[in-house]
Amino acid sequence: MSSSVSTSPTGFDRFGLNELLLRGIRDAGFENPRPIQNETIPAGLDGRDVLGLAQTGTGKTAAFALPMLHRLLNHPYQAPRVLILAPTRELATQIAGEIRTLAKYTRLKMVTIYGGVSMRNQINALRNEPEIVVGCPGRVLDLLQQGELHLGEIETLVLDEADHMFDMGFLVDIRKILASLPGNRQNLLFSATMPKEVRRLADELLSSPHVVELADSAPAATIEHALVMVSESRKRDLLEHVIGEPEFESAIVFTRTKHRAKRLAEQLSKAGHRAVGIQGNLSQAQRDRAMRGFRSRQFNILVATDIVARGIDVSGVSHVINFDVPNTPEAYTHRIGRTGRAECEGIACTFVTGEDHSWLRATERMIGSSITRRQVEGFAPDTTVRSVPRAPARNQERYARPAAQPQYGRFDSGGRGRGRRRAG
Ligand code: AMP
Questions:
Q1: How far apart, in whole angstroms, are the C-alpha atoms of residue 324 and residue 305?
Q2: Are 349 and 316 in a shared domain?
Q3: Whole-number percent of the chain with pLDDT over 90
Q4: Are 206 and 239 in a shared domain?
Q5: Does this model's pTM top 0.90?
Q6: Which of 31, 169, 334, 414 is most buried, taking the most CB atoms under 10 A from its CB?
Q7: 95 CA from centroid of ligand 1 (Å)
């Protein structure tokens, strides 16, 4: 982690962070703290527990990482002292990447632990006594039970995307991991939504937490949502139409099954698009290759199942296309969180068939408003998909959006689409 020093002040100077971290922050190009960072960094530095209701894309990694890095630097000694648990390998890798950037000028060591790859390198890295362990619960538990990972010195625990961990069935593993941590530690829990199981875990884990609730736990305001009515048999043509529009730059396209993701990626490649698929049947090496290719813009279409739906920050994604509707309303907010990052505008476009009525009703109840319907000429729906009357939604406060009238804009081949500006 080393050289090239810039010294211009940033809005981060007032937190009293270690100078080595301030250099890392400058190099990362962060000028001013994000709201979640303003809220979380002082509480984290005070050693308080934190409950963060925020999704990825808000800047939460730096929010939890900077205070813990500061503490590690101010009281140096070697042992795993910070444990960060994340639901997917992709998110664990992304968190580790961000920490590596921020800690570039320090000598702190970190290991990333997840399944699907050999344990050998991870075990070797653990023998160097890294201060920071970032991992997915399954492999962390395996290494713990094999006696390769020692968690008796953990001072800070971060549970990231706790709701997703719950969805993936990790709560049992997490509870086992918690049982081997020392009682006297700081806990930070982040979750975009608060299902009751996560609420219960938070109640057990956190003591008098500082609660940070961001308005943009809801889909980012920079995202333009639209439903496009289409029959199942025309989805593929509609996709061609959307990716052929002038404002299209790049997309994550979500399908319901691994098989559909694989097939659609192959079809798009055959049709001459720079598309790649990512789904759970691929090896870790193949998944890494796909993500790397998408990040480096070798590919501009990533066809994915929900495995990559949360947590992945791919800057500059212009479209999220739900080729199939997500299984749950919660999954919708997570999927569309892949775009509209960092004040860039994004388009979240969901293909809806006549079969998707009950999903639509539940989703609109959850977000507290109806989602704009768009029609694309030549792509008639099998049935009319009506708006759900606005109901007092349970998350009305956090998700409220003005109810939208059906609109015929961007996807209308008649060319009445509004122009779209990109910031940044
Ligand atoms: P996260 O929610 O942690 O995944 O962060 C989303 C993206 O925002 C990442 O690419 C970060 O590097 C970036 N980011 C985080 N904090 C800041 C900041 N204060 N200024 C600019 N970019 C930031």
A1: 10
A2: yes
A3: 48
A4: no
A5: no
A6: 334
A7: 11
